[in-house]
Amino acid sequence: MIELKNDRFLRALMRKTVDITPIWMMRQAGRYLPEYRKVRAEAGDFMALCTNPERACEVTLQPIERYDLDAAILFSDILTIPDAMGLGLFFEPGEGPRFHNPVRTEKDINRLSVIDPYKDLSYVVDAVTNIRRELNGRVPLIGFSGSPWTLATYMVEGKSSRDFLISKTMMFNQPDLMHQLLSVLTDSVIVYLNAQIKAGAQAIQIFDTWGGVLSYHAYKEFSLQYMKKIVYGLIKENEGRKVPIILFTKGGGQWLDEIVTSGCDAVSLDWTTNIGVARKSVGDKVCLQGNMDPAILRSNPKRIKEEVEAILMQFGGGTGHVFNLGHGITPDIKPENVRVFIDAVHELSSVHRNA
Prior knowledge:
Blueprint: H1 8-13, H2 34-43, H3 46-50, H4 53-66, E1 72-73, H5 80-87, E2 89-92, E3 96-99, H6 106-110, H7 117-120, H8 122-135, E4 141-146, H9 148-157, H10 165-173, H11 175-199, E5 203-208, H12 216-233, E6 237-238, E7 241-242, E8 245-249, H13 256-260, E9 266-268, H14 275-282, E10 287-289, H15 301-315, E11 321-322, H16 335-352
Parallel strand pairs: 1-4, 4-5, 5-8, 8-9, 9-10, 10-11
Antiparallel strand pairs: 2-3, 6-7
């Protein structure tokens, strides 16, 4: 086993002492990087890039080569599981992901079965293996999946949505049917993430992108309870280390106390939550990750540094903080502004951690 040279990300997730606040970014391998755009053009399209383990490895490593990041995250997509279930994932230019075969009826859902990651998503497992080898212990590797609720919304709507009318109609009018769908997705996520861990993922993040569109009670019933099942179903230790689990519900800051009960090691926050208030609420129960508004990266270096410092001051001293954006970095961001952001976190946190 190759020794991990920089483990501050994993240490922070476990609320252990670190020298400076670690940082990574959601969507850190992506279209804001010219080297990524080149590889994607060579691949032909997004799915061709995702399903090629060698190219997925290459683009995962691109931001690690360019910046002083403290973790790499597997380059893939949250919709790989529905695609493996036969829904026919494709991407319309300018419109995002779509499915040829959305699930709308009991018959549709009855046809679904739990995936076999080594058969149905072997390209992801191979990519994880390749990335760990090429990282050579520089930084830890994060594996991930979408949450069952988030995956279900895409599968039922057939695409991204603003109002989730079809999904919510099924949830309220046919709750048993929605629970059936969520159950098969939960079991699939568990085996998928465990395959990533066995292949070398050293931490896991669950992206509950659309949990925040639910009411309080619906969130607990249709999203959080299934994420809890995933947390308890995952491999807890690999290669002699604990494998920390991060939950990210976009728009879920108001349910922080409930999310903490999931058994996760860290909660990722979007920018609508004050991280200092969140820390007072959770105490030392979990690590907090976040939570700068990605739009700040469209500004100037001075403004970026001010925002970094404000968040560090809100969090306060001590450990248990992983710096991140409140959601994914957008394609229009200048790479030089990303460097300012990352360097500012490391430089300023060395002061504020001991404040």
